[in-house]
Amino acid sequence: MAEYFTNKLTGIILAGGKSTRMQGVDKGLTPLNGTPLVEHVIHRLQPQTTTIVINANNHITDYENFGFPIVEDRMPGHPGPLAGIAACMTQAKTEYILCVPCDAPRLPLDLGNRLYQVLTENQAELAYAHDGDRSQPLFALMHRQLLGSINDYLASDQYKVDAWYHQHQYVVCDFSDKSEDFLNINSVEELQKVADQYKISE
């Protein structure tokens, strides 16, 4: 991790979704090549951050076994990723937070540095990734001071991540050279396909 990043970054892993397409199995705890998806994510995120916080709303004890703070949504009904981000941001002590989903076992090892670089170069409040084909809004870096804005947005019964981003000074970071690193798993079928095609290297 670059020297200028030291003590500036808290990693947030979003594992609070309902996993409706995973046959009721908690997505982050689903094994890929014998290792839970969230553990793959931890291994790739940890070198990029000073600390990690996990947003989870079920199987709390199982997530606690990974050794990081677990934060549940503060809003009833678990209305989406922004609620998880807001809950975890209350625990952040660093200037910036880097959020990633729990189902991205190949997330870029330079995700934080590249997002930080474009954010600072453009004097933006937040930055998120684009894999060359589509936006990846849950791979995002943002300033901790945006917590109040997220809370206000959620309080107005709005939950769309992109729409909230666009209310702020944001920049999109090109990761087209690493498009395969944004592979995510949303169903049992996708999990099996990935297990057949990839051997995740740590």
CATH H level: which superfamily? Spore Coat Polysaccharide Biosynthesis Protein SpsA, Chain A
Count the DSSP helices: 7
Percentage of residues assigned to helices: 25-40%
How many domains make up the 3D coordinates? 1
CATH class: Alpha Beta
Task: Please tell me how large the radius of gyration is.
Answer: 16 Å
Any idea what the CATH architecture is? Alpha-Beta Complex
Termini separation comes to 16 Å
Low-confidence stretches: none
Main beta sheet strand tally, sense and closure: 7 strands, mixed
Broad shape: globular
At the fold tier of CATH, the topology name is Spore Coat Polysaccharide Biosynthesis Protein SpsA, Chain A
Strand content: 15-25%
Structural class designation: alpha/beta
Topology pattern, helix = H, strand = E: EEEHEHEHEHEEHHEH
Strand count:
9
Strand order of the largest sheet: 5-4-1-6-8-7-9
Round the mean pLDDT to the nearest integer and report it. 89
Q: What are its keywords?
A:
Spore Coat Polysaccharide Biosynthesis Protein SpsA, Chain A; 29% helix; two-stranded antiparallel sheet; alpha/beta; 202 residues; 7 helices
Concise synopsis of the structure shown:
The chain has 202 residues and is an alpha/beta fold.
Structure description:
The protein has a single domain (3-197), classed as Spore Coat Polysaccharide Biosynthesis Protein SpsA, Chain A (Alpha-Beta Complex), CATH 3.90.550.10. It is built from 7 helices and 9 strands, in the order βββαβαβαβαββααβα. The protein has helices at residues 37-45, 60-64, 81-89, 111-121, 147-155, 161-165, 188-197, and strands at residues 9-15, 31-32, 35-36, 51-56, 70-71, 96-101, 126-130, 135-143, 170-174. The strands form 2 sheets. The protein has a 7-stranded mixed sheet, with helices on both faces. Strands 2-3 form a two-stranded antiparallel ribbon. β7 and β8 form a beta hairpin. α3 packs across α5. The radius of gyration is 16 Å and the shape is globular.
